[in-house]
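Sanity check

After download, print the first record. It should look like this:
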Amino acid sequence: MEKLWGGRFEGALDSAAAAFQDSIGFDRRLYREDIRGSIAHAGMLSKCGIITEEEGETLIRALSELLKDMDEDRISPDDSFEDIHSFVESTLVDRIGETGKKLHTGRSRNDQVALDVRMYVRHRAAVMDRALFELEQTYGKIIRENKDTAMPGFTHMQKAQPVTLSHHVAAYFEMIRRDRSRIRDIYERLNECPLGAGALAGTTYPLDREMTARELGFYRPTANSMDSVSDRDYVIEYISALSIVMTHLSRSCEEIITWNSNEYGFVTVSDSFSTGSSIMPQKKNPDIAELVRGKTGRVYGDLISMLTVMKGIPLAYDKDMQEDKETLFDADDTAYACVRMYTGMFGTLTFNRERMRKSCENGFTNATDAADYLVVKGMPFRDAHRVIGEIVRYCIEKGKALSDLSMDEWKGFSGLFSEDIYDSVSIETCISRRNTCGAPGVSAMDEFIKGMDAYLDEGCICEPDIYGGKTDG
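Expected structure tokens:
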């Protein structure tokens, strides 16, 4: 296959070197972005009089037909092509002759690939935003239904204070809300069009960069031609945001794995998201949760790879930057699959509510409330802390919960205790009295849910429809 740059060279590129530097094996997935960018470029060349109106129409028609053919799998590039750009141009020349060679006027592969990657990240950011939105909806359903489902809250993996399942899941909802906010920020920042930047120094042709930016759904053209082709900070930002998403999913999966164990028994993972053992017939393994936890490291690796690729590259474009695509594709594919699988798994969990509530009692999660009881009665908090610590030690020795103690036992530690201590240390009271903003009490959670529902009503990123309705994800 003749190279787009072959005129300068007398000898052929070594076959192993060609295979080493070709990118068609992975950048073929950018065909929609490449063809849509080419359609916009051809229309602009025609409008600006750089090619004739007839040539522009011929190019646009042929490109549109090629896009349809590729969408419907009637044609696809083979490994004889260097990259997706050479495949598109070569196919055009085969179909419409010499006019196909005019498409690259005023354009370099540097600004062409920068455009393709920006469009790809923009689209995938919107797809990821929708997936995370669906996860938030899954969380929202569980939050609304479990305002009265008591469970222990933990610090240091030790039972700490009673909360509710609603409150616990709302913590993850807030994490995903921030994840979506980061992705939306990235979407806003990257939405500038590099097409027309050329190799690094623009072009002498009178291009209308504003026109191509509008046609492709960008807010504006990029401001500096060297920066346009030589940076991939939007790729780094996107993979970084995906890494944080994976951190949040992995933390939740760690809890699900723990809660699914016989020792905890807080949840049962659906058969639809579990597997068995080839030797132990009793086993039901939370493999999806474990895989999400494991794949988190893979996305982290993609981020480190991308940062390392970019750290020493002088201006402007260098071939190192070809490494951006495989890390981007892998991180996006992995994170998207994990979000979808996690959403399905979490939405089908069965919660053992009675086991959760009993665990609150067994773990002395109401001890802080017992100390607060003494403070209200006039005892300094530090003294109250010591007294309740002594009571907890006594309960452990006797195999009792605080609610099991007789009044004589309470008074043996302090004369400030009276019958109302039993209500004060009940799990329901401990939760219901916590109604400051962000707390697990019912009225506080009602306020949270009101805000959550208003936020969910805002929906997802409104992506420009430049693919004719044909998108993946």
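If your output differs, re-run the checksum step. Summary of this record's structure: The beta strands are 150-155, 158-164, 192-193, 220-221, 267-268, 350-351.
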